[in-house]
Sequence to fold (233 residues):
Amino acid sequence: MQKATVISGDIVSSTNLVLEDRAMLEVRLKELLGALTDKFGTFGRLIKGDYLECVCKAPQDALQVALAIKSFVKSIEVQQADSRKDNIRIKLFKTHGIRLAIGYGDLQRYDPEKGIMDGEAVYLAGRLINQSASTHGKERVVIKNTLFFTSHKENLNEQFEPIMALLDVLLSKATSRQCEVLYWKLMGKNEDEIAEKLGISQSVVNQHSTSVGWNSIEKTVEYFAKTLKKDIQ
Fold:
């Protein structure tokens, strides 16, 4: 039995996106899961096109991976819909992108080649996502939180709850371009490499990085990793 972190994610207002964007989003999410596997050695899978699960065998990587997922989804540009109601929900997608829950606990069965992940960490993350407010079928939707951490250790829950809330607010205010820069920073790219990828200058990358609060995000990711490493030992 091993300790692991499992990230469960549910795309905000996915059913209100136009059909072409829903199809595009599914393709992009599969590409993202592949990139995360290459970078962090994670195992991820997409369920019904708008729900994902991702196992971090190195539990300390979970916040960095979760923020990479969050910033990637928020960087995706989508179209306006024909109905006013759908456009209100699409605005929620642009603001929040995806709900993410990090579950930290035991992983009893794990076989990426067979697509098997089973254990406490999976249930903790999935349960928390299911309990969080859904936008489906509601006339008026207010989303307060979209980034969560859960475990059976109350001291960790208490430590990380305010951190998740602050990161949530920070990312909800970020533009799609800022999120794009943040994603590549979280994936380990330097500003010159990001500038080349995005076709902009390094100084513009730096401006976006500063505006999204990269220095604070980087320190928070390091704190999370250090804290979980200490707990595992």
